[in-house]
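Worked example

This section walks through a single chain of length 397. The input is the sequence exactly as stored; nothing has been trimmed or padded.
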Amino acid sequence: MSDAEARGRPAPTGARLAANVTHFVRLLRRAGLRLGPGDALDAQRAVAAIDATVRDEFYWALHAVLVRRASEHELFDEAFRLFWRDPMGAHSALALLLPQMKTPINRSVSRRLSEAWRPPAPPSPPPPTAPAPRIDTFLAYSSDEVLRHRDFDQLSAEELDRARALVRRLELDVRPLVTRRTRPDARGREIDRARTVRTALARGGALLELRRRRRLTRPPTVVALCDISGSMGRYSEMVLRFLHTLLAHRGRGHVFVFATRLTNVTRALRQRDVDLALARCGAEVGDWSSGTRLTACLREFNRAWSRRVLGQGAVVLLVTDGLDRDDPGELGAEVARLRRSCRRLIWLNPLLRYAGFEPRAGGVRALLPNVDEHRPVHDLDSLDALAAALAAGAPRR
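Given that input, the structure is written out below as tokens.
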């Protein structure tokens, strides 16, 4: 006897269940999962292949076709728990609530899921016809255009929310790297000599055709070392949001934060929801907004992490203002060692926002000769320029 029969409720009808599954897939898509009409059809087939009245079978059937990454599991689990609270029975509350679904009041639900659950706003009525005002287009900018040039540290709370949304929508078209590995491809540009000879020998020595192959590509690895000391302020948060977007698009990379000690926050930043990811970073890091021990943290990275994460020509982003009181000679030696271990070392410095910036501090003078690029990182334009620089790539030194 099924669970639904045991509770004395009628089993869900096929049409009602199919409509609810489609609603569920749309909800996950609005929450950020990359799902399309084909995935909705797969979900319908998966549900049709199992006993839909058994909750565990129903859960894992949808999970198998709708969840592709480990980071999506938590969002799926939360959405399933809220959406299918009482899926059994045509007269259940779910069937009545689905057309007028409201935002759940559960405080633990993620911000992305709450926004996905919210029904779309009704179209606003057309504005009354009025004579077109005369606008002087000289020096006229949209609000977002003005925001792109504003310093992160000078943004109001409302402007900061808009800046965070713009960082999440940055275009990151990063060019993949060509590797030494190959795979057979009839349309490849290179001749696979070994396979050509083996094929000829298998046919009695007659060279009838040339086997071809092509090079495999992979996204380049980006490793970020982000200063979270008190002097970095909001710059650290916006850079971490940029790195979260970078990891979501690229999938290959590592992120470390440091103030008085070094912490690997890569796993926390791989959480799909950026607000939840930053909250986990804050929970794992105990020296946020404290002092800076740049030399000691770089030394620890060079000795404990460099060989593990800087393989295959990694690009390193060093995000700091360089205000360090340690011996400049030791700092220069550690940065030089870091530069020798990677393909390209980019220093992102928020102090470059000042037009009259001069390298007077000892830490700044120690860093400058040992980096490949020195870029500002204080507004949206600087982050956009950094994304363009990463997309363009650079030859190995």
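What to look for: The mean pLDDT is 79.
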